[in-house]
Amino acid sequence: MMYKVTMRCGHVGEGRFIPITYVVNGNSKSEAIEAARRIPRVKHEDPDAVIHISTCSEEEARQIRAINNNDPYLKSTYDKPIDLELIKDRIKKMPNRRGMKSNTVRRASNLWQRTMQEAMQYAY
What we know:
about 20% strand; alpha+beta; 4 strands
């Protein structure tokens, strides 16, 4: 059975993602999700990486593959990086869930704590 799975993909800036729909095969939704999580560019570590999943027909699968074959984001490589201006309208901000601090806030907090510890070390 074929599924269309919309996933959060990365490498478009810290705390941001781009939704991409892929066609994957699987006997169940969970099997399709497992396959989709292994696709390059997908945010593998994100527990909420799956945005949407549903079955699709052969015609829908062809259309999705044609769109992906011409997608500038998916065509970019290490040697030929993407011009973010081409996809800026598709880039979304990651939701800050469960009261978790963003990476930027966490890093600033850690830096402040280290600085204070070093200052206290030389204060006496």
